[in-house]
Amino acid sequence: MKPVKYTRYIAVAFRVAVTILLFWFIVTFVQVLTFQTAYLFVGEDTDEWEDIFKGLQWREHRSSKEVLPDGTIHLVYTAEHSRLRPGYNEQQIFDVNGSLIWEGLDRDKPFEYLQWAERPSRSFYGNQLLYMQQIGPELSRLLDIPVNSNLRTEEVWRYDVERQIFTGYGREGDVLGYIGAGGFAERLSEAVGLGDFRLFKLCEGTGINPVFLWQTDNRIYEINFETRQVRIIFESPTGKIGVLRSNNWNMKRTDEPAGNVEYRPMIFCRTEDNMYYLIMRNPEQTVVVEAFKNENPDSYSLDSTATNKGVFLLCHKNSFFPPPGISEKEKERYRKEYRQKPEPRCLEFYSVGGSGDIELVSSFDWIRPAIDESMWQARIDSYERYRKMTSSVSPPAYDLLWRFLEDDMLRLAKRRFGIIRELVWITDENQADGSFINLFSGALMVLFAFWHGWSRRTGWPRFIFWLVFVGLFNLAGLLTYLALNHTVVIKCPVCGRRRGLETENCIRCGAQLPVPEKRELDLILST
Amino acid sequence: MRFFAFIRKELRECLPWFLLAVIFLLVFGSISLYSVSLRKELSYPYISLDPDVPQTPVYQLTRGGTLSAAAPFLLITVVGLGLCLGIRQFWYPHFTKVWDFELHRSVNRKRILFSKMIVALPAFIFSAGLLWYIFYWYAGHRELFMVSPPLRHLTEGWIITALGFIVYLGTVKSGLSEARWYTTKLFGLGFSLFIIVVAFSQYKIGWAIAAIIAGVVVFMVDIMDTFESKEF
Lengths: 527, 232
Known about the structure:
Number of helices of chain B: 7
Strand content of chain B: under 5%
Distance between the termini of chain A: 36 Å
Radius of gyration of chain B: 21 Å
Number of strands of chain B: 1
Strand order of the largest sheet of chain A: 5-11-12-13-14
Largest interface: A-B, 59 and 62 residues
Largest sheet of chain A: 5 strands, antiparallel
Shape of chain B: elongated
Oligomer: heterodimer
Largest sheet of chain B: none
Strand content of chain A: 25-35%
Distance between the termini of chain B: 24 Å
Helix content of chain A: 25-40%
Number of strands of chain A: 24
Number of helices of chain A: 12
Order of helices and strands of chain B: HEHHHHHH
Radius of gyration of chain A: 34 Å
Helix content of chain B: 55-70%
């Protein structure tokens, strides 16, 4: 075989790949558009839900569980959260025995509950750093930290994503130095990378410019660009830092505390090995809590706070224990079944000692009522009906993909962002799950391709390949087949049946293509 | 010699488009860079958390570099050049007697094809890539701009230039396709758009370059096969 033949085969393969890719995009776009348009007409039924959520058990479950500094637990029930409805922000406060203690507007309540460390607000996260680096029509963006005087920008510190350090520039563009994990360095070779970025948050500094709380995989830094100082606040000795929350974390506080409780600045973080670290100021103190090390992370969540009276933990426990090692999809199915049963819940309030030991101060147990999914079943049914309609032309290849590569697909879908993640979700949403209508439409497409290709066939392997191809990709496959295989057919003069023009011999009777008949004045053919 | 004659012919016919691209990018890119240099003093907002000072949202700390203002003009230039050259060279066979001249010479088709592409590739390199390097050099002047653009922005400019070449190949593929415009004729352009989206959604430059290389390989193999087997 000549080398040019190979090029031909590769070219045909590429042509098929490009055509199916584009037809797949077009079909998927139409599917998504149709589904979204149809789904617009499914109405809300929140009033019905509100009726179902009424009752003592639901009230207990839906109440916010608040804790007083002495450890007393209160249940704060807000019946109406919508500003547009009467009774907005009216609250009822119950004790743990269900007795009504107080009733009135939120702003008038006579209790001051503990505030817990929260996810840092107005922060910049790792995925935003990735977005920033996307090449766009205006190029990737840069993270520039200005150091301002009262009138103008004096310095700019630019973050180098590759080296994980900051480079400082003066007003005249001169390089001032570098800031890395080891602090300020005059030479690039002396600067040490900060580590893989997770988030930063602005805090009040000592001067006009803010100080940066900078979290990486294993460390939390405090970077002051004005004074060019870097301080490591915390370094995880073992696992990466998974969760970070902060309360009142500022260098200085110009405003007076809003209530009587005085909070210590605190950072609360959980590492991937389930260790909890409480980093506090006034005075500086780090407490390691190991008590939850062997707990199933799905079965509880922790809040923390530190006041001048003590350090506290609030543990929300549930009874959700999915079997270990199951896939995400199985876990979701398990969770769905679990929601349909009443569930014992528990809230435990602990006092934390200086060495990380915890002492139970108070607790509250209640039952989360079974969630009757029939209340949103109509909505689910509508959703499923529209999904089935639009997925009737989905490629059955989606089902195969999810059946055999489910874990890989979910791993791809868990990526923080990107075109692959979107494509994975589209394949999941448009899966036909082996529905009859999808199989039927697939069979129709294959039959059509068979009918169309029978008279045009040039060989069995190619003919069978296209039938399997159409079967795998459904409508997109059929359109690709037609785009690349549609040719004119003629009636064979020997056998009288339809034949394509891609082969010299008729595929049915073997007769050659007809040649023009000789005529008297045809000098060329007659010589 | 015939091959060089073809190249000269292509160069002569495509020169107006190169010059137009150079003038467009030079004029609009220079204006945008000049306007950035005028705003040097006002570039950075306050980010103080002092309650009396208006606060800056954190995301405003991410900023386009000096060259960001000129980059959209680079994109417009290379996409426009890709479309013009592709249409000029391949879409209309009788446009200024393109095929009549070439197909009656005793040369094989590969030479005709390569003579066109050999002219098109430097068109992108000189009219966009080189000009982008000049912008990068200009933006590095400390007396004009407070902070120099990073080397990454130079590379990104070249990636955009390469995307222009992808648009050119897509136009060539569409031009050579014998399908009707409402069926699959525009799929070449569609695939080049897909490559642009994939390249623009990457945050690692290596992946963007890989997407472009994959696109060039797919297009080149397909175009060569189509050109060799096409009946003119």
